């Protein structure tokens, strides 16, 4: 029977990012990642299909957090207020000790087209989860998807700022501010 | 010396889409595509790197059309008016005889994750081209990229309507209307 490994997923993510940074994404093997994390390959494959997926570990948790928070927003909340609540719920999980993951993640993804494509898919999934949750609140199209896309954009822009080594603000704070800035910029469009 | 083949690129696109529709994307070979178009494999490879790229033939032409039109928009045009001019220039090239291409393209892309990822990249490139062109007009961030992304979204939403067999409107008309609707929906966000 499989032995329970405390915090295996996070250990694998950290080990993978260390190795990708040290020796490159292409040459790192699943065996090396498991080894560095002090785990077996079997444990690795219980958590991830391949090394690429390690970089997108949070996708399911994140889409669920966003959708649940939109569902739980107060009845009269506007679409963007519901999205704001969802982003608060998501960003609260990005505690300061996880910033290092963000710092290392960015250059690895930026260096590989296949990872950029996968990242684009994750981004679309996050927007899709919020759009679906807004539809359940009877927000019509295209309002629902516009609010969701604006929220996802705020999150990613803020994440880049958060992962900057010089930054000392929380991701929640940065995401809220970015969403406000995007909202304000919309009025200058036309 | 290479013989000049009139309209080779469009013939290859049409042949590829016929074959992808008839017998599937996966099983169709470059040889079959060239054959159906009445051309040689050598001619195929002068136009496309592989069969996937046939589906994204217009990317370079389209990004150039968008960027040029934004550059040529009147000085006082707002960001969204410049984007509107760019979309007019782009959609004018989608004449009615090219609708069949759109009708066939959609299901092929929808059926393959690798094609969806490639399509997401093309979409990002179109938005990027408009964003860069707006920057050259001194439109600041995030206004420039928001206007560009709204424009690209209008184009893709309208393209889906245009490729619907029941549609009888031009892509220009549909794109303008969709952009107006998106613009109006922004005020309902918050």
What do these coordinates show?
- The structure is a homodimer of 190-residue chains.
- Chain A is mostly helical and 190 residues long.
- Chain A has two domains: 8-49, Homeodomain-like (Arc Repressor Mutant, subunit A); 59-186, Tetracycline Repressor, domain 2 (Orthogonal Bundle), CATH 1.10.357.
- Chain A is built from ten helices and no strands.
- At the A-B interface, α6, α8, α9 and α10 of A face α6, α8, α9 and α10 of B.
- Chains A, B: GO terms for molecular function: DNA-binding transcription factor activity; transcription cis-regulatory region binding.
- Chains A, B: Residues 29-48 bind DNA.
- Chains A, B: It comes from Streptomyces antioxidans.
- Chains A, B: Residues 6-66 form the HTH tetR-type domain.
Outline the fold blueprint:
2 copies of one chain form a homodimer.
Chain A: H1 8-23, H2 30-36, H3 41-47, H4 51-54, H5 59-72, H6 79-91, H7 99-110, H8 113-136, H9 143-162, H10 171-186
Helix pairs in contact in A: 1-2, 1-7, 5-6, 5-8, 6-9, 6-10, 8-9, 9-10
């Amino acid at each position: 029977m499989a032995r329970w490994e405390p915090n295996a997923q996070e250990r694998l993510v950290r080990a993978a990012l260390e190795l990708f940074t040290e020796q490159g994404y292409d040459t790192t093997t699943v065996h090396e990642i498991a080894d560095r994390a002090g785990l077996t390959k079997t444990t690795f494959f219980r958590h991830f299909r391949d090394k690429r997926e390690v970089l997108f570990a949070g996708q399911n948790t994140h889409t669920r957090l966003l959708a649940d928070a939109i569902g739980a927003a107060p009845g009269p909340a506007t679409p963007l207020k519901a999205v704001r609540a969802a982003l608060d719920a998501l960003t609260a999980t990005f505690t300061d000790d996880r910033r290092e993951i963000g710092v290392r993640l960015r250059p690895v993804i930026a260096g590989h087209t296949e990872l950029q494509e996968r990242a684009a898919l994750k981004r679309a999934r996050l927007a899709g989860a919020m759009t679906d949750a807004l539809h359940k609140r009877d927000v019509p199209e295209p309002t629902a998807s516009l609010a969701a896309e604006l929220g996802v954009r705020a999150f990613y822009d803020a994440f880049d700022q958060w992962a900057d080594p010089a930054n000392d603000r929380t991701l929640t704070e940065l995401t809220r501010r970015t969403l406000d800035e995007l909202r304000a910029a919309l009025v200058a469009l036309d």
